[in-house]
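Troubleshooting entry. Yesterday's outputs looked truncated, so today I'm pasting the complete records for two proteins to confirm everything comes through intact. If either block looks cut off, that's the bug. Protein one:
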Amino acid sequence: MKKLLPTSTAGSLPKPAWLAQPETLWSPWKLEGEELNEGKQDALRVVLHDQQSSGIDIVSDGEQTRQHFVTTFIENLSGVDFEKRETVRIRDRYDASVPTVVGEVSRQRPVFVEDAKFLRAQTDRPIKWALPGPMTMIDTLYDDHYKSREKLAWEFAKILNQEAKELEASGVDIIQFDEPAFNVFFDEVSDWGIAALEKAAEGLKCETAVHICYGYGIKANNDWKKTLGAEWRQYEDVFPKLQNSTIDMISLECQHSRVPMDLIELLRGKKVMVGAIDVATDTIETPEEVADILRKALQFVDADKLYPCTNCGMAPLSRSVARDKLTALSAGAAIVRCELSG
């Protein structure tokens, strides 16, 4: 994108109250059948309007057509039994009841392509579309078939690549893979995680991104953050490997985090989506607070490669809080853009 410091969101945005319970993850749909399909499209229009009116340059679907950023994609694949559930530890952080892989996983049809085509028809702005990354997908399942995290990740990478290529063909400008698991399973990231991610992005001509954060602002994630000490240096293990990867953009968490900003230097040459909005609080950042994060980041990333963003998805927030935060993001980016242009 030619605009300096183009703004975007990391992923999810709050759903309208008539579609699903506000401020709730995994919220069930309030509509059924054709009403649900229409409701999802209406929600896509709503979040697009909210982003555009807030000054967001690279827009997204806000994950309005999915209940969860990982499982909604998996629900559309064969080989996974959602009735047969087991309790597993998610990212070594909390226990959850998850579906079971019972056979070979495969994609019988596109999952998000029609939604992407609909969104593309509504706007001329660049579109970013998020998909779950292979490692994060396997971390939300019980595998009773492959019995190997690596083998299952490679199968998911192939499936994700099929979906990503069709999303690209539908007019999506940036394909983003969400990999919060990269902040936890460092040996696997090194052994096969980066390679599986590259497989998911193989052959794409549009820009590719990977989002690595410290999670939604839910209790389990907040409690985990309290154990990480005065400095959160998890990125130090992953960034050098990503800097050498084929992925174009890296999305990270900076606002109100304890991530040492100089770790961004490890990504020199890549485009960096700098999280300048905290999604774990209802407090609205001031434009100057956003600008301060961006100024610090500019010590370690060239201005033409800096993309102001949110720390993570905003689904657990209210719509009014999310809108105000997006407005602050745009205003903060405008301050620094002005400074850079003299």
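Protein two, checking that the full record survives here as well:
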Amino acid sequence: MIEFNNVSHYFSSKNGELQVLDNLSFSVPKNGFSAIVGPSGCGKSTVTKLIAGLMKPRKGSIILNGEAVQSPRSNIGMAFQNPVLLEWRNILKNVMLPLEIVHNKLSNEEKVDRARELLALVGLSEYENSRPSELSGGMRQRASLCRSLIHRPEVLILDEPFGALDAFTREDLWLTMNRLREKESFTCLIITHDIRESIFLADEVVVLSGRPATNQFSIKTEKESNDNLDQLYTPHASELLNILREQIGIARRKEMADK
């Protein structure tokens, strides 16, 4: 579903061009869930913008479902660390917002039913008439996830959506994310600094090198179940965490040596 083929990208600055990606290649299969981790500032968020078609790579290609990404795509849903909900709209209408932008043939009743279906999945049914300021941070992020899925996107991109939340809320949202994955059909890529999050949610974790980033290392998580948090305390999980910590350490040391 998602293919990054030898992608290199640069940003212009007053000191010349700054390279952020260097021949980056990876893929995410249809209905797969992959995570990208790496040192701060290595270009992880740039990856999401390129997939979404918000930027074009200087070199290489990005393929979604067999088609080259040349411009913003309506079959993509996105959620970020800041939910950016509109205070003048209640939660139900915030969730429905993409259906006012993305072309669809749904009646208003069908749009409402779809929004309520998603809110029920994340435990927000009784808050559909609430304003964003009346909800906790975790609840607002649940609403943001619903909004990103309302138009049934083929691809869901998550850019550190749980990074600003406390540990307990974050873990609860991991479970919510897995429930959504069971009920909805999408291919997902999450950008995260939390390696526990990466191995709990993803089928594969890609470690980016320091900037300019390339695919330094990738590993399949091969989990037996996503049902509960107990899997984070198994010997297999400990091994995965140790491997990923070591790889991120290598990336950081390389980045420092190159400066």
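Both blocks look complete. Sanity check on protein two: Strands lie at 2-13, 16-28, 33-37, 59-64, 67-68, 76-80, 155-159, 187-191, 204-208, 215-220.
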